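Title: Request for sanity check on EamA/RhaT family transporter prediction

Description:
We are preparing a figure and want to confirm that the structure record we downloaded matches what your pipeline produces today. Could someone re-run it with the sequence below and paste the raw structure tokens into this thread? We only need the token string, no images.
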Amino acid sequence: MSLTDSPALARLGVLTAAVGLGSAALLLILAQATPSTAAFLRCALAIIALAPFAVAEVSRRGLPGRRTVAVAAAAGAFLGLDYIMWAQSVYDAGVGVSTVLISVQVVVFPALVWLLHRQHPGRLFLWCMPVMLVGMLLTGGAFGVDPGATAPLRGAILGVLSGVLYGVYIYGTYRCRVLDPGLIVTPVLVATTSAGAVTLIGGLILGGFDFDLGVGGWAAMVGLAVLGQAGAWGLLAVFSTRLPVTETASLMLAQPITAVLLGTLLAGEQLAIGQWAGIAVVIAVVWLVSGGMRLLRTRGRRPAR
């Protein structure tokens, strides 16, 4: 077994990706970029990072099919809208809340597979949906908010909408893997380019482009593009297929947990008790829907060595 096939290395890769994605909101705060600027630069800088790997992949495995390109581009359009809404949500509701709310994607993705491909997600999924809604309401501030949040209601709404769009994007990447299983980076590059075009158009319509970020701001944006997008998705593309789906999904819980911890410890956020309860509910639902109980049962049946 080669080093890259090691389950321990795969777990480390997925966990690193989750922590990188979880740090994205804090990096956005540190960059002090406007939502339009942050959304556009996140894509533009990620394109630069992804392009060499995509070129190498195409030289080895050939160009993607037309359907793959079309699906990736459509998914990227949803991702671009997601980035615009999410960036505003971070400023409105905070680092932790905005990241936890996009966890609604774990409901959206299976729902799309169910509706479009008749793959029933199971009874547990249906039971978890109303519980997830309660968790979202609590996290969004139904019973108290962080006093430092500037627009908690708008931030909560945008965070949930961002998660819905994110779920559509994940469905698109899933379809790309089905259509062209040999390609990993190239569909991500196509989607990121499409997302960049959408964020550019959105920024021109909404206004707010400001690229005078200073050295620290640009460093934070580069970190966001690499750690919170290109690097994270690259690690997931390489290592997530080397682990059971349930284990990958459970490790990805590090994303919202990282965001909440960073928001509390470094961004000075003071979440209300109701929001902490909502975060706990959302994380528990994500764990259940992602197969957490099944993973525990599987490990419990392993013979002792």
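Thanks, this matches our download. Residues 7-299 form one domain.
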